[in-house]
Amino acid sequence: MEKAPGGTSVGVDDPYDHVDRCDFVTDEGKCRWAREHGHHDPDFADARSAEAFRCPAAVGPDGETEGAEWDWGDCPHFRCRNRDRECIRCGLEERRLAHSEERPLLEEHHLSYDETREGEDLAHEITVYLCRWCHSKVHNSWARVDDDVNPDPEAIAEKEGRRSKEQSEMGFQSAAERYDDE
Where is this region: Disordered (predicted)? Predict the structure, then answer.
């Protein structure tokens, strides 16, 4: 299994198995990184520009999604951050309270760290969301990200407690009642 710099497990054998698409790929299969950040890597940007900014990992030369020339790991500027606000392991959904200092239920979990491919250092960011309980299990034990598990009872209790607070805030209470000095 992949390891974090501290030596703990990240819960997957191949981080790229958990990638749908790069954050920089548009719906048309174009590389947004080359257009917006190309000044950081002019050779890469020029190569993408020569092909109308086609992403070789997302779209093949014929414009079809099948037959892409690269794997996601071949792109020097690949990044994939999960945007779903639920734990990918147990399905617990985030419940954040506005103006609250409470610790979030979900934490960002990195699946990949610096690696070397053919003598080149790549720092691909591949992240997913795990609830605090699954996150600690993945890092501190044999648990895997793709295990089929139910949310921890403590996680459900915490989520329901936040839900109850939300509902109590939505109830009407006059300012006179709310701030009564009695």
Answer: 144-182
Angle 39-45-49 from CA coordinates, rounded to 5°: 130
> What radius of gyration do the chain's Cα atoms show?
22
Tokens of 80: 């994939």
User: What are the domain boundaries of the chain?
Assistant: 1-21+79-168, 23-77
Tens of pLDDT, residue by residue, the chain (182 residues): 777 777 777 888 888 888 888 999 998 889 999 999 999 999 999 999 999 999 998 876 666 666 678 888 888 899 999 888 899 999 999 988 777 788 899 999 988 765 544 545 556 888 999 999 999 999 888 889 999 999 999 999 999 998 888 887 777 777 777 676 65
Residue 87 near residue 134 (C-beta atoms within 8 A): yes
pTM above 0.70, yes or no: yes
Q: How many angstroms separate the CA atoms of 141 and 127, rounded?
A: 19
